[in-house]
Amino acid sequence: MADLCNHIQGRNVPPLGGAYLDNPNPATGELINRVPASTAADVDAAAAAAQAAFPDWAGLPATERSRLLLRLADLVDANLEPLARAESVDTGKPLTAARAVDIPRSAANFRYFATAILHTSSDLHDFDGGGIPGGVPALNYTLRKPRGVAGLISPWNLPLYLLTWKIAPALATGCTAVCKPSEVTPTTAAMLGDLAVEAGLPPGVLNLVHGTGPDAGGAIVQHPGIGTISFTGSTRVGQWIGGHAGPLLKRVSLELGGKNPFLVFADADLPKALDTAARAAFSNQGQICLCGSRLLVHRSVADEFVAGLVTRAQALRSGDPLDPATQQGALSSGPHFEKVSRLVEQARELGGRVHCGGRRVPAESLPERCRRGYFYEPTVISGLDPRCAVEQEEIFGPVVTVQTFETDEEALALANGTAYGLAGTVFTRDVTRAHRLGAQLECGIVWINCWMVRDLRTPFGGAKASGVGREGGLEAIRFFTEPKNVCLAL
Ligand code: NAD
């Protein structure tokens, strides 16, 4: 078991203070490795390296940055197996999921932005001088310049996928980066540092500082040399970051939590809605910000729907994440397991009906090596007041609550009745209703008769307490660049 290192100036270095955190495997309790417990001094060193590398990196032709990022994408693909295994061991998710989704998507992120940057254009306004006192004919064009050093902070649920979703646009536009992966799942980020060297990225372009949120993450947010912060994580931490980065006038993007409604109308294709609802509720053990965690079902089909969902939940096989037959792995950590368990207990106390799950997976049903792991059964709960804490707080586990409605207005009020606004799903065959709800649901993305279909070119992000700003496609390129207007009199 080797200790992980920070990656600064193209080299793997120990934390300056010499302190480490344990990184346990949530499926077995075994120690995987130790993670640097970095402090502001490590962040200073990483920021200095990123600042020094910035002028040359920004000055490279976009084709050259693109070539290096495409090489990095190829190396991620070439290391699919070790990366997927490390991701599975760090997170507790099934290896099959890490292999099919997390790692290929990380390579796709690099490929997408490495090519997108070759096809961006600047705006030009051909002004004829008319209608404005003193106006003269002029060409006004807008250059987009990389902003400098970007601080990129990411969570544990899709570790490499979400971190590369930030690194790729930052580096493609010519920014350099100081990254802080989650301390709960740091291993694939550390591996990426080595792949960046192998790909030929100049030293200092990509720096990684491991450690806790308050110490390493907070130091990034407050560092005067890091002017741009892209954060994905909880709403609570996002609020802290907004509060501290705001007075420093940093540019900030916050991708935060969700409590996403999944609406099923009586005219829906019910078998398809059921299969999708089960995937939306339990994929990655419910630990995806976009999971459909609040099922809103038309009263006339509610009993049938709940019964179908329970059947699907009970059929999911929990087990060793490394076993190819496993569909449900472990929750990511002990504290997170405690949070999920506590909210289900609270649901019981509030009179909720637990249709299935609602407990730890019995140890005797798990293989020997996983008996101390944080496995929780897929859980379906109904009968709660929609305003109670369990219906309002993000649980972020394999737990879905069910409410029923009679009219479209009731459905909409329930759907919009939380502080969050990340994603919504609607199953209906009524095309007018689909479009109306597409516009009226208060969230950043609405899926009609599907879930989790992503086109990397579309703006991605949340409304209300789910975030500020948008990532993806042009939005990300705009975020990491500063517009500069040039006016040339004719
Ligand atoms: P978290 O907010 O606890 O931590 C996220 C990251 O921020 C970690 O790297 C953490 O170390 C760091 N951090 C914590 N405190 C910090 C501080 N004071 N300053 C700077 N950094 C700090 O979130 P988590 O538990 O790792 O992840 C789960 C959350 O992420 C859920 O709420 C989920 O919905 C959200 N999430 C959102 C999206 C999205 O795109 N909207 C995607 C995935 C996950």
Short description:
The protein is an alpha/beta fold and 490 residues long. It has helices spanning 40-59, 62-78, 80-91, 95-116, 159-173, 187-199, 213-222, 235-245, 270-282, 302-315, 334-349, 389-392, 408-415, 431-440, 473-479; strands at 6-8, 11-13, 20-24, 31-36, 124-127, 138-146, 149-153, 176-180, 206-208, 228-232, 251-255, 260-264, 292-298, 353-356, 379-382, 399-405, 420-421, 423-427, 445-448, 463-464, 467-468, 481-489. The chain folds into 2 domains: 6-256 and 466-489, Aldehyde Dehydrogenase, Chain A, domain 1; 261-456, Aldehyde Dehydrogenase, Chain A, domain 2, CATH 3.40.309.
What would you note in describing this structure?
Strands 14-15-16-13-12-18-19 form a 7-stranded mixed beta sheet, sandwiched between helices. Strands 9-8-7-10-11-21 form a 6-stranded mixed beta sheet, with helices on both faces. The N and C termini lie far apart (67 Å). The model has no long low-confidence stretch (mean pLDDT 97). It has 15 helices and 22 strands. The chain has 490 residues and is of the alpha/beta class. The chain has 2 domains: 275 residues, Aldehyde Dehydrogenase, Chain A, domain 1, CATH 3.40.605; 196 residues, Aldehyde Dehydrogenase, Chain A, domain 2 (3-Layer(aba) Sandwich). The protein is globular and about 70 Å long. Bound molecules: nicotinamide-adenine-dinucleotide (NAD). The site of nicotinamide-adenine-dinucleotide (NAD) has 31 residues, from helix 7 and helix 8.
